[in-house]
Write the structure tokens for this entry.
Amino acid sequence: MDTTNSSKELAEALCLAQSEVEAAVKGSTNPHFRNKYADISEIIKTVRHVYNKYGISILQEDSFSDGMAHVHTTFLHKSGASITSKPSSCIPAKFDAQGLGSAWTYLRRYALSALCCLAQEDDDGQTASHDRKPEAVVVKPIVPPSPKITLTQAAEITARIKQLEVDEAVFLKFYKIKAAHDMTEDLFEKANSALDTTEAKRNKAAMSSAHPE
């Protein structure tokens, strides 16, 4: 809490105001737990007239940074003295206007209750703040791309395609490349394996034709 601009008058006024503040009435219901809590309007109604009576106004400023909602609360005395709390902060349950508004309202109520020493056993923090455990971050290993084949390998695969009388255009389209030299090492191995299978089938068919049963 920043008390740099505080004064004896402010301290005395806070002491008198605090002695007269009554417990806030729990009039709102938390839908998650179906329990009662005093909402922000009830808190303000409870403390404002007492603090104003002793020349104290209450200011609350909200902000958002680094993924968190913040609220600063200041007690300003008519003499010009003031004290400001450290920020009350939370991660909003939703990062939209409604989620931020809910978080700020919760923080205003929470901060004001704490600074005015109001008992707050039940609250609506479930709907205002993020309570999920951080999700584990899975880092996938970076697999480097397979290098392209050499011009010699490209010539070799082209020769095999022609030798086996395979439709080169269809062959290249199947492997989603425009020319043989666009092949990667992995693709080269797969293509050669496919050509081996084609060659073996043709040799078997030729042998069957040469030696019919």
Summary: The chain has a mean pLDDT of 81.
